[in-house]
Amino acid sequence: MAEIYDETHELFRASFRAFVEAEMAPRREEWESEGITDRSVYAAAGRHGFTGMAIPEEYGGGGVDDFRFNAVISEELARAGLGGAGLGLTLHNDVTTPYFLEYCNEEQSRRWLPGIASGELITAIAMTEPGTGSDLASIATTAVRDGDEYVVNGAKTFITNGINSDLVITVCRTGEGRGGLSLIILERGMEGFERGRNLDKIGQHSADTAELFFSDVRVPVANRLGEEGKGLEYLAFNLAQERLSLAVYGLAASRSALDWTVEYVKERSAFGQSVASFQNTKFVLAEVATEVEVTTSFINDCMIEHNEGGLGSTQAAMAKLWASELQGRTLDRCLQLFGGYGYMSEYPIGPAYADARITRIYGGTSEIMKTIISKDVLG
Ligand SMILES: Cc1cc2nc3c(=O)[nH]c(=O)nc-3n(C[C@H](O)[C@H](O)[C@H](O)COP(=O)(O)OP(=O)(O)OC[C@H]3O[C@@H](n4cnc5c(N)ncnc54)[C@H](O)[C@@H]3O)c2cc1C
Fold first, then answer.
1. Considering 196, 211, 229, which residue would you say is the last residue of a domain?
2. Are residues 19 and 34 in the same domain?
3. Residue to mutate (ligand 1; options 91, 168, 246, 365; most atoms within 8 A of CB)
4. End-to-end CA distance of the chain
5. Less Cβ crowding at N or C end of the chain, within 10 Å?
């Protein structure tokens, strides 16, 4: 298989792995029990160049727009079993930063990009509402123009970084129909902007997933990203990278599960022989390894196309659908080979199994991915 990483990526990997081992992995259990990752980890990551890699140097970023660096971060987080603690960091780099890069005007760039690059301004994106998730056109949070301000009312739910975030890209209704959505940045501390519960989930316990409430929040028009009414168009553009990011994580989590399982079955014995010696174990691992290898080729192609600006929405949907389904299947099959220990939190496979369940749902469900793909297939 063609190698897509060069020496620069491998140096970056070594440096991020050291950061994970020193600053993140030792605090995993603490964050899992608290239901949130300490926000100081973002600024620490920023100091080492692990946030804002794509942000131009003049705004304090790394100045290199190469998605492979983002992928290296995902792979290392998956390897360390940090699916929950790492979620906010990958969201910040892979999902939200591109909106700021693409749509900020000069004044907004000066105001926000340095903090995003340094990890001192943590970001989130709020699309989902209690009444609508998959169907973005039904978003009901309103932003009504009043002079130089919008008055925002409504509620969002399931928002990653919901508690930690300082800047929230909030999808608001500024007009009727599909052309009536706009992206407005709500900032920590604005009057009438309240955080609700940090939601209790079955996995990704270190990730803060929260409700947000807006009650007559007065937001300067200068906080709107891009043009009014272009929200859905902007979302469609950026969702390709969000889906690729989830696909990369799904594949990385599958590869990590395979590695953990190979190590475990060689050490564990049953009926006087190693678990690795059973034909079932060999066949399961052969199938998983094959699927991981074949998927790697496709995801690598997607990354190269994305770097060259050519990743289409259908291909991104295929990558997300395939890799998240692979992740679910792989984690389930690998956990089975751990027996009862697979169900215990002390081995990474158990928490990674629970963490995996969401990837078929967020960023667009598998059913929505199939809907997008089928439109292309049927023409
Ligand atoms: C841990 C977590 C983190 C999240 N982070 C964020 C975030 O940071 N920002 C954010 O905005 N959102 C976030 N979400 C929300 C997530 O993106 C939505 O939950 C997801 O898009 C599905 O929306 P829904 O929950 O409203 O389900 P629904 O849209 O109500 O779907 C319910 C079921 O119906 C199916 N369905 C819906 N429409 C169709 C259709 N046309 N054809 C066939 N089947 C269909 C779905 O596939 C699903 O199986 C997060 C969710 C979770 C759980």
1. 229
2. yes
3. 365
4. 32
5. C
- Closest residue (by CA) to atom 14 of ligand 1? 158
DSSP structure class, residue 58:
G
Question: Pick from 71, 25, 69, 75: which is nearest to 254 by CA?
Answer: 75
Nearest Cα to 250, choosing from 1, 368, 75, 93?
A: 75
Query: For 98-114, what is each residue's pLDDT tens digit?
Result: 999 999 999 999 999 99
Residues 340 and 248 in one domain: yes
Torsion of CA 213, 216, 221, 222, to 10 degrees: -60
Query: Residue 80 maps to which CATH number?
Result: 1.10.540.10
Residue closest via CA to ligand 1's atom 29 equals 134
pLDDT for residue 181: 97
Q: Are residues 216 and 340 in the same domain?
A: no
pLDDT tens per residue, range 323-342: 999 999 999 999 999 999 99
Give the residue, by CA position, lying nearest to ligand 1 atom 52.
158
Quote the domain boundaries for residue 288: 232-378
Number of the ligand 1 atom closest to the C-alpha atom of 134: 29
254: closest CA among 345, 344, 318, 349?
349
Q: Is 267 a catalytic residue?
A: no
